[in-house]
Fold:
Amino acid sequence: MEEYRTQPEAPETAPAEARARIWQHFLRPARLLRWALLLSFLVILYNAWYEDIPVHELALRYGYPDSQFVEVNGMTVHYRITGKGEPLVLLHDANSSLHTWAEWTELLSRRYQVISLDLPGFGLTGPHPQSSYSTFMYASFFEQFVQAINLRRFHLVGNGLGAQIAWFYASEHPDKLRKLILMNAPGFEKKSRPVLYWLAQTPVLNRILWRITPRSYIRLMLEDVYADDQKITPELVQRYHDMLLRPGNRKAFTDRAQVHENRPPVDLIEGIRTPTLILWGAEDTRISPEYAYEFHREIRRALLKIYQNTGHWPQEENAAQSARDVQAFLEGRF
Structure:
């Protein structure tokens, strides 16, 4: 009779070794680094995720006692009229609002009827109903606004995008303008696109910008337009950030990035006959001061002043001096 012998049982070390190998696999430095980076990215997204702020809340927070609203082409346009005298209309730059003119309004409304407005896609006015953001649309919109508030003849000031609208409007409606002031105006410079605009132009990815809006981006934007970063206060960053959270304004940013044929022909500039003052910040990193001389050369009998230690928005960074110069120009004393 055969004897059956059982083999001695092996020590139960295999499962323990397998578990150890699994943990070693998950705890490899490279894998831990990837997880840490992913977690950090998710934390950044969480902290930069902002819902829209309702318009009525923003109006209560940032409206002025003399704030008014008027319907223009399907938009409820936010504007101010302050003071009495000859009308002086102020057009702000991209990514800004009528708040950029706060100090000018206080200073110049002693002698003039100062009118400022939030352009489509910005401030409390919000997006254009057809998502149209070319300079041609803005000039047409501005003429509709002028008619809506019954303006006849007025002085016109523009900064950045507002200056581009202003010189194009001056070329088409010279009979409406008394005097023209252009501040850091686009027109002659070569068009460039920052990396953020590439993201804004990319389908699907651009939807991220409709919700992800870090305050650090607003700070960087202001550092780009200011020469002196010490003037950028937390309150200033907060206001610009809040205005971008107005429903539709973040989508308006991505819609504006889709516009390629945005600029009217610069040949129109040499035809401007309205008395013109050109103001520029010497430290403007967006549009070089060299282009101030192009405007000065092309516009007949235009006057020019360049401010030292000033960037792209002289009305904010050098408000008192620039307002005095505008008043002197309007009164024939410049």
